[in-house]
Structures are given as structure tokens and as C-alpha cells.
């Protein structure tokens, strides 16, 4: 015989219980000893009051990053003419909310103004322009940033240096030069090297390790490595690989942070993809939890409404933990679970589009790992590998995977 709880009946009717949480994402991260859980944002979306309200919710977000407004094209559009208006808007929002500000970025090969990309540079003139940019921007934000992404994406996939204007004109010395200029302008701010595909072992991660050692070899301060973590559903590196790669960085005396996490999928989204996405978010956030020197996690915006993904990766999207209507997706519970947060179900209702009410009683297990077994895989929202949430329900029946997040016992 199958017993159905009241909330299971709602589910069977296509109604998903709205969750009430004992803690938001930031609260849970801080409770684990992390400094923050945060989100990127951008100026155009700050006119959306409902968006700003959630962005300002410090239960979920203790940190924000300006996605564009501190980049070179935004801050120095003409040589030696600096504009900080949009960056200041984000910085003031962080200050008003009591959120940390991660500052992003100083030296990159993208989003450079044309006076830089089409300039006629010598080694000396480009170093002077580089130092002038960093000195002015870091001085303006002195005391406001937790960290600066000083150099962004200096590496090719094989771990060699990207042949950017910076490398081609100055050579690898542009990295220590940039870090030294930033350190001189704000001795207290954390200085990061930030890149993608360095979250897991391989040639590019080895290249990032070399960059840390290079800067250190110049006697220049480098405090952290930023792991962008722009991942694809179903292809996220394992928790143990991400954690061991983080450990390789921290062994050099620097901290790490996940700086731009999002996990995209080929559209349209399905319940199965959303379930896998939840697992993948939990995997990556879990790697930070496992790593003492991982100070925090930043998602690259919190809602699909304003994600950069559809505009950059054709046919892909749904990469954030909230959907475009600001409704929490399974990814939210995946993250919260990885952070050790608790969830309880309430009676309020949110319609879901795809619901499976199939349930099958199988064997039970009470192991403390993520491999809970039992029944019920409704909504395709099972936690899968890496899930560390509760494995049993309060009924005589044992739940499988994420059902316990919703206190569902079939
Ligand atoms: O038209 C441009 C538009 O293309 C631009 O999009 C931004 C591009 O950068 C995105 O952030 C980067 C994402 O991945 C990493 O590689 C970098 O470290 C990040 O900086 C950002 O989210 C997009 O909005 O925005 C300005 C428009 O004029």
C-alpha cells in the first residue's frame, strides 16, 4: 500500500510545494565558515525592483560582482578619461545592503576600448597605460572591494599564454606588473588571477599554478585564484577533482573562490536537465565546502531572466538557480543542500509544468553518503552523486534522492 501525504497529493495534482528555508544560500555558506555566497549583477537590470529586492536579500547573497561596469571599456573609454558611474552604482548597492563587493576586472583581452586595441604600442607605452589604468581604477575603489580580479583569462586551453595584446607586447611580465600596480594602489584588497577551465586538473590548471608561482617569484602579492566555473549540465567535473584542484592552488599559499558559477543547458529545459543541473550545482559548491581555502561562491547572476548565457551561447540557457520568473529551480535546493542548509515544505503552491507521479518502492539504505535508495523520483529532481542532503523521510517509507528536501514520502 502507498501512503500519500497532503503535499504528495498536491504534487500529484501538478502543484509543487513552495519551500521555506531555515537558511538562505549566504546564511548557510557563512555558517560553514565561508565568507559569502554571492551573485553577479549588471546595471541595466537594476531598474527591475523585484530583481533588486532579491539581489539585496542577504540571506541568499552576501556579496555582489559587477558583471560589466568595472571593465576597461566601461572605466577608461578614452585614454586617461575615467568613468565610474555604473561601477559606483553597484558598489553603493553592495554598501547599502552590507554585501561584500568582488571587483571585476582590471586586465583582460576582451571588452577593451578601441584606443587600446588599435593603439600603436611599444613595450614601454603599453606598460605605462596598463599601470595608469590599474592605479586609477583600484585607487577609486580603494577600501570598497573584498577582491579584485587583476588578470582575467591569460591562458590558452593547453596552459600556454594566450597571445593577447598584453602578452604579445609585454610578455609574461605583464602579469606581475599588473599585480604590483594593484597592490600599490590598495594594499588591503585581495588580488586574484581569474580564469575558466582551471577548476579541474589538466594543462590549463597547471598553467594557472605557474602564474601564481610567476607572480610570487617577482616578490609581488597574489592572494587568490578565481575559478569561473561556467559549466554545462551533465559535464561538470567531479567534486573530488574540483576539490583536489583547489587544494593544489591553496598549497601555494593563496585562497580560491568560485567566481562566476553558472551551469547551462541546451534549451528547452526539461525536468531531467533541471535535476542534473541541481546535482551539478551541488557538486561544484560542495567542492568549495570541502576546501578550507575556498572562501566563497559567486553565481554569474541569479536569474535566467538576466543571464549572459543565451546571448553568448546560441541555443543554450536556463543556467541560473532561479528561472526567468524569479522562481527557485531545483538548482537552488541543490546548492542549499551542499551548503548543509535545511528545507521545509509549506502549504503555499507554485505550479510546475512537468510532473511525474510515478513511484516505485525498492530497497532501502541508510548510508550517510549521497547514494540514498528507496522510492519515488517525482519531478525528475533526484539529487544524484554528490548530494549530501537527508536520506530518509519521517514516514515508514524511505525517500530517494531529493524527495527528502521536500519532505515527500510516498
Ligand atoms: O554586447 C556586450 C555584451 O556582449 C557584454 O556581455 C558581457 C560579456 O562578459 C560577461 O562576463 C564575462 C563572462 O565570462 C567570463 O569570461 C568573464 O570573466 C566575464 O566578465 C558578461 O556577463 C556579459 O554581460 O556586455 C556588454 C555588452 O555591450
Fold and architecture overview:
This protein has 410 residues and is an alpha/beta fold. It is built from 14 helices and 12 strands. Helix content is 34%, strand content 18%. The strands form 2 sheets. An 8-stranded parallel barrel has the order 2-3-4-5-6-7-9-10, surrounded by 7 helices. It has a two-stranded antiparallel ribbon with strand order 1-12. α7 runs parallel beside α9 and α12 runs parallel beside α14. The structure holds the ligand O[C@@H]1[C@@H](O)[C@H](O[C@@H]2CO[C@@H](O[C@@H]3CO[C@@H](O)[C@H](O)[C@H]3O)[C@H](O)[C@H]2O)OC[C@H]1O. The site of the ligand O[C@@H]1[C@@H](O)[C@H](O[C@@H]2CO[C@@H](O[C@@H]3CO[C@@H](O)[C@H](O)[C@H]3O)[C@H](O)[C@H]2O)OC[C@H]1O has 8 residues, from loops.
